Amino acid sequence: MAEEVKLFRTWSSPFALRVVWALKIKGIDYETIFEDLSNKSPSLLQYNPVYKKVPVLVHNGKPIAESLVILEYIDETWKQAPLLPEDPHERATARFWAKFGEDKVLSSIWSVFIKQGKEQEEAMVPALENLKFLEEELKGKKFFGGETIGFVDLALGWLGNLISLLEEIVGLKVVDGEKFPLLSAWMQDFADAPIIKDNWPPRDRMIVKFQALRDATIVAAAASK
Amino acid sequence: MAEEVKLFRTWSSPFALRVVWALKIKGIDYETIFEDLSNKSPSLLQYNPVYKKVPVLVHNGKPIAESLVILEYIDETWKQAPLLPEDPHERATARFWAKFGEDKVLSSIWSVFIKQGKEQEEAMVPALENLKFLEEELKGKKFFGGETIGFVDLALGWLGNLISLLEEIVGLKVVDGEKFPLLSAWMQDFADAPIIKDNWPPRDRMIVKFQALRDATIVAAAASK
């Protein structure tokens, strides 16, 4: 049967990027549908009625939503270039860190990004604590997945890239090379990997996008006080 | 090799219950270590340094934390009585609903529980919307897993039980049998399944516990206003 693989994404969604990278690593041909989130397509609403968000992967007519769920699906459907290790305990460890990135690292870094002054300083404390756990996890490894990019790298990868965007926008160093040598090296190695680099949106557009998002969040927070 | 399986839990943690049920369904012998969260054991802190929480499963000396990650581990390690279906798309669907329960249903129900008056009425709107999705998902099925209890049932199961506790404490019907006939039947069928019933903490103790938790949350919220 001819495979039909479609990916609903936006040009900038970091969550959708995880799926793009996974499909590229697996060497899967797919059709891209770029969504305008201010005017969502009927297909997107039909395929993801719960969240109405990208990414959605549609494989032979069947939709899957939620980026980490999609990564697991891709890994189970196309066995080449595995994203998760084989050993159950190593798989559990990978899922644990992917979830940690989602639940803790993301929100704590975002908090640093959208706060100012003393509040920003306070927000740095948990953010740095969370990054310290990742630094520990990288001991003896180039990637979280070992010698090659795996599940945790893809789950955290956009965050790695995002941190450097946010650092540029806010003018603040979060991942200091002296405090976080392994994480700094990982961010560089990940960003330099051809499959990642070739599928990352233009940095100047991302800066504009996230700068606007930050400004809007700060204005909204001030208005609600 | 003799297997060594230990579960760190508290008597009341609903997240730990997921793991208890999964181990019972699989027929795995294990040792239980009951933790006092006001005085955590050095072992718990060593095994789960990130969250310092229960449940933690330790299998042949190797720890796994986070209840849904533990369920996947259990299913991959002991193949009997599968919790997840075999088909990749069905597996993805199960993971999607388990995550939905975690991210959306839990917080929206909790919000109803700890609010009062008009705020509680407002909190009911998203809670009922989320439950409606679950109602739809149950069409044509006895359990989320089909004819037998599976991954999604365990992920949502404690929530099913919790809702009835909360209804009793607050004196409010959330899962109305007329609006949610399938979900009501599921809550009953799930609670009546021997493996679930035999491993559910005493209802009177749970009522006292959650009543105290609610009171403390309401006092804390009032103090921060």
UniProtKB/TrEMBL annotation, chains A, B:
GO terms for biological process: glutathione metabolic process. GO terms for cellular component: cytoplasm. It catalyses: RX + glutathione = an S-substituted glutathione + a halide anion + H(+). Residues 3-82 form the GST N-terminal domain. Residues 87-210 form the GST C-terminal domain. Keywords: Transferase. Gene3D superfamilies: 1.20.1050.10, Glutaredoxin (3.40.30.10). SUPFAM superfamilies: GST C-terminal domain-like (SSF47616), Thioredoxin-like (SSF52833). The keyword Hydrolase does not apply. It is an enzyme of class 2 (transferase). Its EC number is 2.5.1.18. One of its GO terms (molecular function) is glutathione transferase activity. InterPro entries: Glutathione-S-Trfase_C-like, Glutathione-S-Trfase_C_sf, Glutathione_S-Trfase, Glutathione_S-Trfase_N, GST_C, GST_C_Tau, Omega/Tau-like, Thioredoxin-like_sf. Belongs to the GST superfamily. This is glutathione transferase. It comes from Vitis rotundifolia (Muscadine grape).
